[in-house]
Amino acid sequence: MNPFKVYLYFGASTLIKAASGLVIIKLLALNLGPEQFGLLGQMFAFVAIVSMFSGGGVTNGLIRELSANLDIETRKRKIGAAVRISVAVSGVVSFFLIFSSKYLATEILQRPDLYWAFLLLAVSHWFVGFNNLSQALFSSFHDVNSLVATNIVGALAGLLLFSILLLKFEFVGALTGAVCLPAISGLVAFFVWKYRAPSGFDKIAWQGSWEDINQLLSYSFVMLVAVVAVPLSQMVVRDNMGTEYGWATVGYWQGILKISDVYMQFLGVLLANYFLPRVSADIHYMGVVKELKKFLFPLWGFFFLAFLSVYLIRDELIILLFSTDFLPMRDYFFPQMLGDFFRVATSCFVYIALAKGEKILPIGAEIFQGLGIVFFSYSLSSVFHHHSPVYANVVTYGLLLIALFCFFVKSKK
Predict the structure, then answer these.
(1) What is the pTM of this model?
(2) Considering only CA atoms, which of 81, 56, 59, 86 is closest in space to residue 206?
(3) How far is 223 from 225, CA to CA, in rounded Å?
């Protein structure tokens, strides 16, 4: 499939996912208000962390291994190793959630009586793990249609479920929806796998050598650091903002993060399912440079136009997506989008490092992101006050882009 169709298909599926997410945001804003919206953001972040752990964090490593090994038996063995890792890690995560549910409810939601949400998460995250494995399989075979179908159906079904729960049970319903939303795509992926899996892959493989397991675990460590670093740092910053400036300001920051998540979804899908398989197939410096130019510059142009359009209509967008209660978040737009502009390029360099089999650089980059958001949010608070997290976003990704570019240029020597 040519790049234009890939962009079109992934763009369409991401647009539907984004639209579903925007509808959810609107419903939350109308029914909960800034304070509860900000508090619920803590749960969304925690669910995101658990969701990556549920697959063992092997998704991108598995895509890389499956793309680099075209032999069918080798691919089956790699998938079998990934399944074993996923089951083992998911079991540990469930055990942790069950026995620490009341503590987590108190620390994250400030309500110990909501411990049941974490018990529900102990079950639902298993479906997320299966979805991660299916995404890796279809990505390595460049089966864009199956990927798109899973994402579209999962997004629409998740929107329907979330809307019913929220409108019926308000905050409790929203909390339940936040826990169950990622699992819906896993249910859809099960049926897509059954009917769309390549020949010989319709049944889940269990075979896998210890060498394969160790190899995937090395990628797993990289991705688990990645998934924990930024969401965990955001949880720390939210808690500080809620204490210092009130949870309404957390709601404003959470709102701009949700808008950021909408367009960053498109980047994540393209990086994992289009860019990574191609740079994994040709890891020579000039080949990677060619792929990077072909991918990054048009993408930067697209994001620049998108950011400019969003900034110019930010007031109308806030009222459309949220409500007039969220208008104070208009001052968060420019620094958040500037930081995200840098983030587009840094993400490309991180995925190039993953494709080349490097471990230290991606880990260092993710740790820097997490620590940078916390450090600069605190250090800039005396100047920017409750706006400091979005300015921390600019500084963190600006510095990281410079560092990663220098490493990339140096790597040709």
Answers:
(1) 0.70
(2) 81
(3) 5
